[in-house]
Amino acid sequence: xxxxxxxxxxxxxxxxxxxxxxxxxxxxxxxxxxxxxxxxxxxxxxxxxxxxxxxxxxxxxxxxxxxxxxxxxxxxxxxxxxxxxxxx
Length: 88
Description:
- With 88 residues, the chain is an all-alpha fold.
- It is built from 5 helices and no strands.
């Protein structure tokens, strides 16, 4: 499992959303809720699946709904990775 930081996860999520939702280039507000960026519940499952593939991490399918901003999601995943790293 790769060691990635919260800012790296946030940047990856922003890039994913920019490509997937065809958002304009430029900064994305990491504190904006996903629906305001155009991400619906079905697409949030794809986001979580892409994160799982990227990090080799198992997450609940509703993780993006439970952590509805890039910042919240990145914090949750970084904490989860840190916890898993401590166990190994």
